Amino acid sequence: MSELTTLHDDGVLELTISRDGAGNSLDHDAVLAGADALHRVMRGQLDARAVLLTGQGKNFCAGGNVAKFAAADDRRAYLRGLAHDLNTFVSALYATQRPTVAAATGWAAGAGMSLALHADFAIGGPSTRMRPAYPGIGLSPDGGMSWLLPQIVGLGRARTILLRDEVLDAPALLEASLLSEIVDDDQVRTRARAVAAELAAGPTGSYAAIRRLLLASSSHTLDEQLIAEAESIADLSITGEGVEGVDAFLAKRIPDFPRARG
Questions:
Q1: Could you list the residue ranges that cross the membrane (predicted)?
Q2: With a cut of 50, which residues of the chain have pLDDT below it?
Q3: What dotted CATH number matches 5-200?
Q4: Domain ranges in the chain with CATH number 3.90.226.10
Q5: Are 73 and 27 in contact (CB under 8 A)?
Q6: CA distance 165 to 109
């Protein structure tokens, strides 16, 4: 583990994506360290049951470090390399099949907005703002924004947000389901950490299955989705968590999913 990745005792893997300074731009070392930690989860080397994305400074992440873009000897090769590493990080977020929470303090712009969108729960405050930011510097989205934003808000709204480079404040983000919850600004990290802990204590297999089904739904026919649901619920019914959940329901007690996982 590095200073940018922390596995808490309750099973929450905290990944820092931006450092204090440089406007809280996306930190390349943080992207590499985060991807490495997520791959270790997939290999069974880290027992993480939820992921928490945070920034070190006042902002979650204000996007890429534009000054470094400009200083690169070969901008195309440099940007392609950065995009590749960010793609690896985003793909690993999905491949781990762990629920993800973002502590969206302050600005989430550019790649920071992309990463906030990939979280299952994005917690913000009254000062939270999101902005695509790409048109402002003559570039196009990365980090999966053009894939996920239309799925959340619809193609028409996504087109408007991206082409007009809209700044979305906290109420607009909540209405558009780009934020899950708004708390006081000084409570964003605390609340996000608590949500991540709740998820880490929950039914990991159930969460993973729900995420897979939701992601597949847009490309499945109804019949295909019904079959996938039937297979999934049947498979989960014989897992430790599935047995514990049913037994606890019948016994009128709170299920102990961590114990059931062994």
A1: none
A2: none
A3: 3.90.226.10
A4: 5-200
A5: no
A6: 10
